[in-house]
Write a structure and sequence with these properties.
The complex is a heterotrimer of chains A (224), B (223) and C (253). Chain B has 8 helices and no strands. Chain B is an all-alpha fold and 223 residues long. The longest helix of chain B has 46 residues. Chain B is flat, with a radius of gyration of 21 Å. Chain C has 9 helices and 10 strands. The chains are: A mainly alpha (224), B mainly alpha (223), C alpha/beta (253).
Amino acid sequence: MDEWQFFQSQVFPSLMKGFKVSISLILPSAFLGVCIGIWAGSMRVYGSTWLRKLVDAYVAIFRGTPLVVQLFFWYFGLPHVGIYLSPFAASVVGFSLCSGAYQSEYVRGALLSIKKGQMLAAQALGFSKWQMLRSVILPQALRRALPGCGNEIIYLIKYSSLAYMVTCIEMTGEAKILASHYFKYTEVFLAVGAFYLVLVSLAGWFLHHLEGRLSIPGFEHHGK
Amino acid sequence: MMPEGLIAVFQALPYILQGSFVTIGIVLGAMGFGLAMGIPLALGQVYGSPPVRVAVRIYVWFFRGVPLLVLLFLFYFGFCSLLDINLSAFTVSVAVLGLISAAYQSQIFRGAIASLPAGQLKAARALGMSDAKAVWFIILPQALRLSIPAWSNEYSIVLKDSAVAYALGVAEIMARTHFVATRTYQHLPLYLAAGTIYLILTYAGTRGLRLLENKVRIRGYSR
Amino acid sequence: MENDPILRIEDIKKAYRAREILKGISLSISKGELKVLIGPSGGGKSTLLQCINFLVMPDGGDVWLEGRKVNPHRKRELYGYRQQVGMIFQDFNLFDHLSALQNVQIALLRVKGMDKKSARERAVAELERVGLGKHIDHYPAQLSGGQKQRVSIARALAMDPKVMLLDEPTSALDPELIGEVLAVIKNLVANGMTMIMATHQISFSSAFATEIIFMEDGLIVEQGPPSKILSSAECARTKEFCSKIYDLHGEGN
C-alpha cells in the first residue's frame, strides 16, 4: 500500500479518534488537578496541624509512587471493595489525584514565597482575611506558581498516554492497535509522537505567552 | 479481605522483591546513560557552535515532548525490527529511559554551568589552561555539585517511570505485582505493597543523594 | 640587554559593536618595572589588561613577549604565553570549589604537569610568602576579601610569571583590607617583579610606579614618571583626575 495513502486513510482517522479521547482525558484531569493542587497547597501552608500532616501524607504518597501503580490501583484494585470504575473514569481519577499532588507543591512554594510584609501592609490597611487573600496573596502567588503549574499540565499531556495501560483507548492505544494490525510500528509511532510533540509544544508556547502577559516588572518568578 | 490479602502479599513478596533488582537495574542504567550523555549535551549547548546548539535543542525538545510509552513502543517494536537488531525489552527500556533522562539531565547541568560566574573560566584561562582542562577541572566539579538536588529529583522521576517498562514485559516490580494479582485476585493489597516498595526506593535514593551532597559539600560554598 | 622590553604591545584595538573601547594602545615594559594605569572607569584599562593576555581577543594589534610575537590563534602558543603572564582580577576569581592550597596547586599540576609533592611544596611556599601559611586549607568562602586576593596573587606567582597584570586588585576590598594586599604588591616591587597594574591608589602609585599612564576614552592621554605626571603643568588632565579622586575618597579605593 502506498505510504501516504495508508497515512491518510488509516493512521490519520484513527489518531484523530484517539486524539479526541486524549483531550477528553486531559482537560478534566488538568482542571481537577489544579483545583486539588490549589486546595492542597493552601492547606499545607494555612491548614491546622493535623490537616497539614494529612495533606502532606497524600502528597508524599502520590508523588512517591509511579502513576502506573496508581492507575492499576484505581482500575484493578477498587473492584475489591465493590467500586467499579470504567477505564476512562479510573484514568481521570488517577490523573487528577496524581497531578493535584504535584500542583500542590508549586502552590505551596508560591504561597511561602510571599513576604510577610505584604500581609502586614494589607492588615495595616484594614483588609479582611478574605480581601487580603483575594487582592494581595493570590495575585502574587498565582503568578509565581504559574510556570510550575503549567509545566505540570504539559507533563499531564504526556502521561495521559498511560491510560492505555488500563485499557482506555486514547491516542497511544489507537496507535498500538493500528500498528499491530498493519505491522507498521515505526511509521505509526512516529506519527503519534509527532501528535504529542505538537500538543506539548503548543501548550508550552501558550504558557510562555501567558507568563509574558501576566509578568510585572521587577517581580521575579520564584527567585532562583 | 484482609487475611487473604495479607497472606497473598507475604507469599508474593520474595517474588516481587526480586523485581526490585530489575527496577534498580533499569534506573541505574538509565541514570548512568543519561549522565554520560547529558554532560556532553550540556557542554554542547553552552559552549558549542550555533549548529551544535540547535542540534542539542532539537534533541531535548524531542525527548522531552514525546511520551515515554510512545518512545518505548517506537524503539522496541519500531526501530528494533526496522533495523533488524535483537535487543531485549530490558535493554530497550534502559536505553529509552536513558535517552529521555539525558535530555532532562542536560538541562540540569546547563543551568548549573550558567549559574557559575564567568570569572571562573577567565581565571582558568589566565593560568594557561586549555578550555578542555578548564571545563574538566574547574567548571564541571562545581556544576556537578550544584546539580545534585535536581539530580535527586530526576532519580525519583526515572524510578517511577521505570514502571512503564512493564508495557514491554520487563519483569520489574510492577509486572510481577500485576502477574501475581491476576492469579490471586488480590489486586488491592498487592498494589498497595508495590506502592510501598516504590516509596521506600524513592526515599532511600533521595536520602543517599542527600548524604552525597553533604559529603562533597564545600565549606561556606553556596550559589 | 637589561633595558630590552619584556613585554611590548602595539596598536591594540578593541570595539564592542560600534563602541570603541581601545583606540590603538601601545606600550612596553622592561624587567622590574611597575607601570600603573589610571583613569576614569570605562576608560578601557580593564579591557586593555584582558587583551594583553587575550582573555578578550583584540580586534587588532600585536603583543611581543621577550621579543617574540605571540600568535593567539595557535592554541598551544597561547596557553604557553598565558602561563608566563600572571593575571590578578578585581574580584579575585578564586576557584570556589578548591581550598587555598588547591587553588595555587591546580595549574602547577594540570598545566605544568608538576608532580604532587613539589606542587604542594611550591604552593605552600607561595602562600607563606603572602602571609597565608595558616590558611592553606580554607576554602574561598571562608576567607576575607584581602585574603582571597592574596591567594590569587600566590596562585599567579606559583607559575613563575615574567610579567603580572593586575586589574584593580584592591577596588573590591573593604578599606581596612586594602593595606594587606598593597603590602604584598610592594614586596613584589622590591623583589623586581615586572607588573602592569590598573588602580586608583594614587599615593601608592606615586611612591612605587616607574611610570604612570593616564588612559581615557580608549587612548593613552598622558604618561611619564610619577614625579613629572603628578606635578608638571603639561599633564593637566592627569592632575585634575587625581585631585578629583583625592576629593572624593581621600585616598581613592
